């Protein structure tokens, strides 16, 4: 049995948003970084590359107030520091950070090899838990992967402005890039 402790020192955990609506040219596609997060991965087996999916597990916790706007691409004007502050405040309001301070993912089933795997689990946002599958792979001491979250599935109404002409797309991509050597 191997247990790995993860966090920002292990790598990055990013959210990537898109835009929709008639006014989408005015807004930005955002990259949001989880600057504070923690996780554990338990791998059943003792040899690199010899882990058994049925005994492996994962849990990741992200404080909502640890989400920071890193980049905004597109849009009529560049993303300013004021925009970043305003977007972060809206994000915390939409996710009801005071009532639901954490987002959690608990992996319940893994399949595949270290080089190409999927992890099925349960993602909890704003007190609502829904299934989510992460896909990823490891190579040269790095594990990279992604999942797509449809906000409305968790009861989140995507942000909109200008009377609905500018909307955040319902789908948000979660991307992780970690320095973990899972073996061959």
3D structure, described in words:
The protein is mainly β and 184 residues long. The chain is built from 1 helix and 14 strands; from the N terminus they run βββββββαβββββββ. The protein has one helix at residues 81-94; strands at residues 2-6, 11-16, 19-20, 29-34, 38-44, 52-63, 67-73, 102-113, 116-125, 128-139, 142-150, 160-161, 166-168, 171-178. The strands form 2 sheets. An 11-stranded antiparallel beta sheet has the order 1-5-6-8-9-10-11-14-2-4-7, with helices on one face. A 3-stranded antiparallel beta sheet has the order 3-13-12, with no helix packed on it. The radius of gyration is 17 Å and the shape is globular. The chain starts with a strand and ends in a 6-residue tail after the last strand. 26% of the residues are buried. The mean pLDDT is 85.
- Give the structural class: mainly beta
Low-confidence parts lasting 5 or more residues at pLDDT below 50? Answer: none
Question: Ends: how far apart?
Answer: 17 Å
Report the helical percentage.
Answer: under 10%
Question: Could you give a short account of the major beta sheet?
Answer: 11 strands, antiparallel
Number of helices: 1
Approximate shape: globular
Number of strands: 14
Question: What's the helix-strand series?
Answer: EEEEEEEHEEEEEEE
Q: Whole-number radius of gyration?
A: 17 Å
Mean pLDDT: 85
Strand order of the largest sheet: 1-5-6-8-9-10-11-14-2-4-7
The proportion of strand residues reads over 45%
